[in-house]
Design a protein that fits this description.
The protein is built from 7 helices and 6 strands. The chain has about 190 residues and is α+β, with helices and mostly antiparallel strands. The chain has a domain of about 120 residues: Heat-Labile Enterotoxin, subunit A (Heat-Labile Enterotoxin, Chain A, Alpha-Beta Complex), CATH 3.90.210. The mean pLDDT is about 95.
């Protein structure tokens, strides 16, 4: 048995629709799962996908629950859903670890372009902390003889997906998560 969480901010689909009644289903359940769609789902926040995002971290789910269209209050709370999954997984449900899926698809180290960034050590903080996004745009440093570059560092879709998946302790469900797996609803405000 493993516990997972999903935040539902006010105004979101899973705030208005109780998964204890219907289970969690992806927005596009018939769409073919692929590495490219996985990267768009995590890196761009594309919800038209065959995936349902889950996290191992209650704190991450809480953060997402508090990001709804309105600030939650005691009389109108946001939710964190607790999901319990067992081995074998129920029905047609499959769990993917996006870090493993991306790692399998990465090119060899000498391939150009690389998934690696070419910015300073603080570059990844711009992906990790939404309040630090300006770090993604700071000019990339180079050796003195190369001249000064005013270009922003390179950010690949693979790196962005890896960092965000690790930041959010994210796993992706492909297929439906039955209502019986949704164990609890925490009201948050």
């Amino acid at each position: 048995m493993a516990l997972f969480y999903r935040g539902a901010g006010i105004g979101t689909y899973w705030h208005a629709n109780d998964p204890r009644l219907s289970g969690f289903t992806p927005r596009s359940p018939g769409m073919q799962a692929s590495t490219d769609r996985l990267m768009r789902h995590i890196g761009n926040g594309t919800t038209t996908s065959p995936y349902v995002s889950l996290t191992r971290s209650y704190g991450v789910a809480l953060g997402y629950a508090l990001l709804g269209k309105m600030k939650p209050t005691k009389s109108h709370p946001a939710y964190v859903w607790e999901i319990e999954l067992t081995d074998p997984l129920p029905g047609n449900c499959q769990l993917l670890d996006p870090v493993q899926e991306i790692a399998k698809a990465l090119p060899p180290p000498l391939h150009s372009p690389s998934y690696q960034h070419d910015g300073p050590q603080t570059f990844l903080l711009g992906l990790i902390d939404p309040g630090q996004q300006h770090l993604l745009l700071e000019p990339r440093p180079g050796p003195p003889e190369s001249g000064s570059s005013l270009a922003a560092p390179t950010l690949s879709a693979e790196l962005e997906t890896l960092v965000r998946a690790l930041r959010d302790a994210e796993l992706l469900a492909v297929g439906a998560i039955p209502a019986a797996c949704v164990r609890y609803c925490y009201e948050v405000y």
